[in-house]
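Tokens as discussed.
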């Protein structure tokens, strides 16, 4: 029988590694009565900046919790870098170390210094004893100082976290997440309460880190304009449903989900929605 010779390696693997997050028909509930999210489909390309916007209570934070395994969907499938997120799963727990999660509350240790907070990002990769004693190798301290400078906090390494301004706290949280050497950054409204200038400084910082580290950033935003300015794709969530997935192409806003809405219709839909 004639054997088929494979002259070239199949290209599937190259194509398939492009997607870092895949959600198919995901629904989830906190009380098994009401859905916090319902029938969500989402596909995120590696290395991109993906934004999620929507009104308060629409399910944005829940979406991030599904991606880092803090919540398990009641139905549907989710893959994060080809693994099913679940914090009780040993294999996923290992991978979780490479997911930099910045919660809406930032999660800084108030009485620890800026440098100590940043170093916490290194804990997962250090051994058990080092973690307990919080003894950090010199190269980790060097790295923390490098990140401290990168986020514009040089000279403030010994300041306690509670003494920092809102923008400075966010910079610490970003540096701590980058200290993890993440492949994915999940950031929940970290620029929402900031003035426009500081918000843009922080977004530029993340864009810069993305270029250097091939990071996929998935960020919840309050402001759709800012989201469109920085993200490749913006998912609009309304009452637990993903109603749009938009992005800027040239000087138009394109809807990638249905593909049949004009820029005016998209903006009108969003602004009507935000007035309610
Ligand atoms: N721990 C919880 N227990 C029960 N219900 C919850 C819990 N956390 C969130 N919910 C509910 O799930 C829904 C989605 O909440 P979520 O926090 O994801 O919204 P959000 O879009 O992030 O809102 P915000 O913009 O105010 O942060 C809301 O109806 C909320 O009340
Ligand atoms: Mg939230």
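Sequence:
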């Amino acid at each position: 029988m004639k054997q088929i010779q494979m002259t070239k390696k199949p290209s599937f693997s190259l194509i398939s590694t492009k997607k870092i997050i895949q959600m198919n028909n995901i629904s989830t509930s906190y009380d098994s009565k009401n859905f916090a999210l319902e029938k969500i489909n989402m596909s995120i390309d590696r290395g991109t900046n993906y934004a999620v916007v929507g009104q308060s209570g629409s399910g944005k934070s829940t979406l991030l919790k599904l991606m880092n395994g803090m919540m398990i969907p009641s139905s549907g499938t989710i893959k994060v870098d080809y693994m099913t997120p679940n914090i009780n799963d040993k294999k996923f727990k290992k991978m979780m170390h490479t997911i930099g999660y910045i919660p809406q509350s930032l999660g800084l240790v108030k009485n620890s210094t800026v440098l100590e907070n940043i170093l916490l990002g290194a804990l997962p990769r250090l051994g058990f004893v080092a973690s307990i004693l919080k003894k950090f190798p010199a190269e980790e301290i060097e790295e923390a100082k490098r990140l401290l400078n990168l986020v514009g906090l040089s000279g403030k390494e010994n300041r306690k976290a509670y003494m920092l301004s809102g923008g400075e706290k966010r910079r610490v949280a970003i540096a701590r997440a980058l200290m993890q050497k993440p492949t994915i950054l999940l950031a929940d409204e970290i620029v929402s309460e900031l003035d426009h200038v500081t918000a843009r400084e922080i977004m530029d910082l993340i864009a810069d880190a993305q270029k250097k580290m091939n990071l996929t950033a998935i960020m919840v935003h309050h402001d759709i304009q800012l989201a469109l300015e920085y993200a490749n794709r913006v998912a609009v969530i309304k009452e637990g449903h993903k109603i749009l997935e938009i992005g800027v192409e040239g000087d138009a806003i394109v809807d990638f989900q249905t593909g049949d809405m004009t820029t005016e219709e998209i903006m009108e839909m969003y602004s009507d929605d935000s007035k309610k």
